[in-house]
Amino acid sequence: MFRFPLRACLPVVRVPPPGVQLSPCTDEDHRVTASEETTTGRALIEAGSPVAGSMCRAAATVVFEPTAAKVAVDDRFAACLRAVADDAAATPMPRERVRAGAALAFAVECAATLHRNGRTARSDGWFDARPGGRPAAEELAEAVVAGARRSTEERRVRHLGYLLAEVAVSPDVDLELAGRALRLAESLSWRQLALLAGVGRRERVPLPMAPLEDEPRAWTAWGAREDVADLQRSALLDPPPVQARPVATLPRLRAADLRLTRRGVLVHRLLVLDLLHEDAVTAALADLGLPRS
Question: Is residue 196 within 8 Å of 237, Cβ to Cβ?
């Protein structure tokens, strides 16, 4: 046994140097890492610039800092884009990030134009949470972002974003119909979208009267002719394809004979193909061996 019992020690108090303030630390006090800076929803939209150009930064401001933006969109639409951008921010494939961000930026671009032109966002519950589920607007936005990520033909991404903005101001289009249009759009090539755009604006810019070759020799022309036939078989263009008969001589199809079906009108309207670049329509007709009127 120790001769002297242990005595309680007084606590040692160290006085901080003058000018130094002590502050309690929390779990949130940490340096922002480079990976965290690039995995935010705002960074995702800004990452779309290789496809959507320099307007991506402005689009991200509209969504995440609307008071600092020079243009406006509906607050509920912006909130929907914020939620989807944050969810998709961790997309690991760099080029998929680019396409996802670009689709959202194009949606902002189109929505701002619609807002400026007086087309207001729908008020039929499109942006409201549903029993047992999230808003239809967010579900469609996620589907559009997923479609953009899959779209290696990146020129289509612009019009996928436009679909999201157009449906947001179209109360006559429900989620199922919008999903149908999106699935149809994903099944079409860029040249087929250009052909639909050309047929859709035929009243303003007439299509050529020259007949289409049924079996062109050049591979590019043959592929373009197959694109037209696929649009007919998919009931996006009228007239429907005519089955050849052994003894019958059938009139050859002309581009000027083509019309949008109701399915074609749906795709043309929701993808806003009126805004598809005219040079793409000219190139699609050239692949068919036709001049632009």
Answer: yes
pLDDT score for 263: 97
3-state SS track over the chain? CCCCCCCCCCCCCCCCCCCCCCCCCCCCCCCCCHHHHCCCHHHHHHCCHHHHCCHHHHHHHHHHCHHHCCCCCCHHHHHHHHHHHHHHCCCCCHHHHHHHHHHHHHHHHHHHHHHHCCCCCCCCCCCCCECCECCHHHHHHHHHHHHHHHCCCHHHHHHHHHHHHHHCCCCCCCHHHHHHHHHHHHCCCHHHHHHHHHHHCCCCCCCCCCECCCCCCCHHHHHHHHHHHHHHHCCCEECCCCCCCCCCCCCCCEHHHCEECHHHHHHHHHCCHHHCCHHHHHHHHHHCCCCCC
**Using an 8 Å Cβ cutoff, are 258 and 229 in contact?**
no
Q: What percent of the chain has pLDDT over 90?
A: 78
Residue 33: the pLDDT is: 46
What does the pLDDT read at residue 244? 61
